[in-house]
Amino acid sequence: MDPMMYAAIIFSILNSGMLIVLLYVFTRIAIRSRAAHSVGLSFFALLLLANSLLTAYSYATMTRFFGRDALPYLSTMSVLEFFGLAVLLKITL
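RESULT FIELD:
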């Protein structure tokens, strides 16, 4: 497996970890405050978590179907999502 695919898989797993933390925080706020905004953020985090888990799974199981030319784009998307989630987590906590 190409190292760039490994990077995409690792960053997708890291994204999932950060989304689990965000989902916990948003859900805890939603339960305490019953605010519609917090419920919406929890739903957003849940959908993004499902996306990240499915992405990591598909990268790991369907590596042979991705062309070498696509690997830089796949890993770049995972890295950019990681930094975006890191900023969101820093702002939230």
